[in-house]
Amino acid sequence: MTRFDASTEADRVALVADAVAAHRERDSAFCTLEADDDPSDDPAFLPPWVQYADGTLNLDCTDAELDALSTVVSRFGAFTVSARETIPAETAEEDPGTNVRVEANADAERVGQFVDAVFREVYGLPADFRLWAVEV
């Protein structure tokens, strides 16, 4: 990989596809994608993230985000929620929520489209948010 961030939809999709391809080529444990835009300007803001490993996406959601994720998953036929685990309040970095695993039976570009939709529609980020490949 030669670039590690992108801020337009097309570039973010390509970045995710490249990160997934690099992850597969390197046979790494996972790749992590993270947004750095804070819509609230809160100093305690923890950026949303999505990890990919072996055809599975991993992410944390609040209850409201979980509802939005269900809507996104319903639009992408090759993606299915395979596991949900409640994150107890005492171990959560923020509010309690749900860790979700989504099986992605798709090529790297379609994974990129799905991940971009997750950041925009589930996490509510603006169309011009910056996405980083923070670990490949």
Describe the structure.
There is one protein chain. By secondary structure, the protein is α+β, with helices and mostly antiparallel strands. 34% of the residues lie in helices and 29% in strands. The chain has a seven-stranded antiparallel β-sheet, with helices on one face. A hairpin with a 2-residue loop joins strand 3 and strand 4. The mean pLDDT is 89.
SSE blueprint:
Elements: E1 5-6, H1 9-26, E2 31-35, E3 49-53, E4 56-61, H2 63-75, E5 79-87, E6 97-104, H3 108-122, E7 131-135
Antiparallel strand pairs: 1-7, 2-3, 2-7, 3-4, 4-6, 5-6
Helix pairs in contact: 1-3, 2-3
Question: Which structural traits does this protein have?
Answer:
alpha+beta, Alpha-Beta Plaits, 29% strand, seven-stranded antiparallel sheet, 136 residues, 7 strands
